[in-house]
Amino acid sequence: MAIKNTFVQKAYPCLLGIETSCDDTAIAIYHKGNILANISIIQHIHKKYGGVVPELASRDHEKKLLFTLDEALKKANINLYDIDAIAFTQGPGLMGALMVGTSFAKGLAMALNLPLIAVNHLEAHIAAIFIACPKPKFPFLCLLVSGGHTQIIAVLDFDKHMILGSTKDDAAGEAFDKIGKLFGLPYPAGKHIDDLALKGDATKFNFTSAKMSNLDFSFSGLKTQVRYFIGKMETEDEHFIKNNLADLCASVQYTIVQDLIAKCEFALAHKQYHGIGLVGGVSANTQLRSATANLAVNYGIESYIPSFEFCTDNAAMIAMSGLFKYQKQDFVDLSVKAMARF
Ligand code: KG4
Ligand code: ZN
Q1: CB within 8 A of 251, min separation 6: which ones?
Q2: Which CATH architecture has domain 14-128+312-327?
Q3: N or C: which end of the chain has fewer CB within 10 A?
Q4: Model-wide pTM > 0.90
Q5: What is the C-alpha to C-alpha distance for residues 134 and 249, in angstroms, rounded to an integer?
Q6: Which residues line ion ligand 2, judged by CB < 5 Å?
Q7: What is the mean pLDDT of each run of 10 residues along the chain (342 residues)?
Q8: Is 135-305 a domain of CATH 3.30.420.40?
Q9: Residue 312 Cα, ligand 2 centroid: separation in angstroms?
């Protein structure tokens, strides 16, 4: 593949980021420290199924990618020939959805004879921090909480991470979504629980999360606990959920946030970090954001919490992560394949 042979490294490359790991079709353009465009098209098609249907996600990405690219180019006010490299999500994620994005990126790289950069979706969530904060102090602790992952990570450098703990079953976002489904809330339920919790009393119901001895998490027990609890209460009052929805949401959210924060605090108490970062879709959660910021204040360290548009899946973080690989000339050739798992 001739990509590398013709390559001239630029100090300020214009990067195209492509994200299709789940149910957001997203394209972003990054140049000289600025996100010129960050277009995300959320697939509403999954709502009626109460979760992402992989085959539908792939087909929808296929339909929307070209349009999303056009929108991004328009927003950035550039044309395709201004782009210097193509960064795409290689995985982890839904295999079919990743394959659509990978093929699209390969096609563009081949047609434009540009370097191709394969990005790890989880590393990209961490890279979202550097969009707003280009010079964080290393090492910092990072809580990565999304629909598919929950990890506590030591971030040693821009592209050097060490996973300290992770969930043994459901991810935090999955817990929000599955418990939200039990409450009859639409998918994804995280934002609905967040909004309802603002009006509820978190002390009304006492839920507990599984106690793990180290920095690992377990959220599937909480879901079962909530299911049995509401099942029992509904036999006494058939409108129990409806009549107590805000308090139920507040109590569940409190339990999840407490657990996440307690683990971060444990990590901070045992090792010196200069800051704490919060990334992934669940980092959009109001209570989790303020609890993380408070934790940083208590420990006299900085907090790195990206703005909402960079919390949930987006392509700006893919372009940002791609930049670090571009600087190291860490390119892939056209034989690269999507990887559902790493
Ligand atoms: O990172 P993300 O967009 O996709 C994955 O890579 O999974 O995360 C999506 C997850 C969903 O589970 C969604 O319910 C959750 O993030 N989420 C929230 C909030 N906004 C999105 N969870 C709690 N509170 C929110 N405000
Ligand atoms: Zn994600």
Answers
A1: 200, 201, 202, 203, 204, 205, 206, 207
A2: 2-Layer Sandwich (3.30)
A3: C
A4: yes
A5: 36
A6: 146, 313
A7: 67 97 97 97 88 94 98 98 98 97 98 97 96 92 96 95 96 97 95 98 96 93 98 96 98 98 97 97 97 98 96 96 96 96 84
A8: yes
A9: 6
